[in-house]
Backbone:
């Protein structure tokens, strides 16, 4: 009789362990899905903001070039000064790309582990 009860308890214990592993798997799956959807949503928002920011910069650059051209009475000079400004900004970004890369990477890692 004791051997039968031991088998029942062992079988119940095995069933409980299997159920625990399945529950842990489902919890891990839900957690990973939640985190990946949060990262994906952040990426979409950043892309949308980036597109609008790019449009503002493009039209702002055209307007600045036109305005400087009117002030200097030479449109080419106005656009050339604007292009020089953009070249200076690009150079600054290229020089500081390692710090910028580390900053963006840290933001992404923090978002994943939220």
Residues:
């Amino acid at each position: 009789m004791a051997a039968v009860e031991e088998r029942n308890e062992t079988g119940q214990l095995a069933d409980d362990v299997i159920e625990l592993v399945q529950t842990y798997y489902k919890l891990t799956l839900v957690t990973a899905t939640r985190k990946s959807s949060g990262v994906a949503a952040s990426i979409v928002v950043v892309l949308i903001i980036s597109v609008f920011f790019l449009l503002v910069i493009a039209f702002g650059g055209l307007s600045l070039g036109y305005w400087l051209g009117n002030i200097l009475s030479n449109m080419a000079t106005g656009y050339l000064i604007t292009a020089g400004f953009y070249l200076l900004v690009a150079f600054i970004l290229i020089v500081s790309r390692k710090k910028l890369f580390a900053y963006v990477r840290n933001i992404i890692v923090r978002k994943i582990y939220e």
Notes: The two ends are 53 Å apart (CA to CA). Residues 2-72 form the longest helix (71 residues). The chain has a mean pLDDT of 87. Residues 64 and 82 are 7 Å apart (CA to CA).
